[in-house]
Amino acid sequence: VEIALRWASVGWLAVGFVVLPQPGIVYAEGLEDSACFECHADEELEGERGGQAVSMYVDEARYSNSVHADVECVSCHADIEEIDHGEELTAVDCGICHDDAVEAYSESIHGQRASEGDSDAPDCASCHGSHNVVHVNGKGSAVTRLSMSRVCINCHADEEVTNSHGQMPRPESIKAYASSVHGHGLFESGLTVSAVCTDCHG
Predict the structure, then answer these.
(1) Which of 41, 128, 174, 182 could crosslink 156 through cysteines, CB 3.0-4.6 Å?
(2) CB count in 10 Å sphere of residue 80
(3) Assign residue 170 a region: left if phi > 0, alpha if psi is -120 to 50, beta otherwise?
(4) With contact defined as beta carbons under 8 Å apart, do 3 and 175 qualify?
């Protein structure tokens, strides 16, 4: 069973939310998304994060088909006030809209590790994506019942990650799930009634 995926895991986040403008929240105004894409539609655009070069490219087509298609860029990137902005920006706060989910995340083991500065701890985007978030049950979603366990396995079967976190189960025990009756039912037969990671671990 192929277990190498692009996403990390936040098992409890495998639920759906509707994004609605929240009363009392002041969003940045004055910048159209089209202005953002003048730069960010460039596939070669790069920035720096943690001393490493990272892509700043945003696929406009995928963004337009995401659940956030009607949400302006500056609604999430709220500290951007002009198009010629610097690289040191405040991290997007998903709690602006998803306050209940962020509160639950903060109480989870992943949220606790993130608050302690653990760079391996997954955040919202690790699981759901960033500019390409689709509905939890939509085509391409990384957090459907069928795909969620693959997301968990992606990190928990990574020896580099587990070796640096002694409290995590060894990769062998995680990989054993893929060859179990539950794993075969899920990955090979597509049986969504099979037990998945979040059924036991939350």
Answers:
(1) 174
(2) 18
(3) beta
(4) yes
Look at the block and give the residue holding tokens 């990190």: 155
DSSP 92: P
Q: What's the pTM?
A: 0.71
CA distance linking residue 199 with residue 197, whole number of Å? 6
Burial 35-65 (b: 16+ CB within 10 A, else e): ebeeebeeeeeeeeeeeeeeebebeeeebee
57: phi then psi, degrees, rounded to nearest 5: -70, 140
pLDDT tens digits along 123-146: 999 988 899 998 888 888 888 888
DSSP characters over 122-179 = --HHHHH-STT---TTSTT-TTSTTTHHHHHHHHHT-HHHHHT-TTSPPHHHHHHHHT
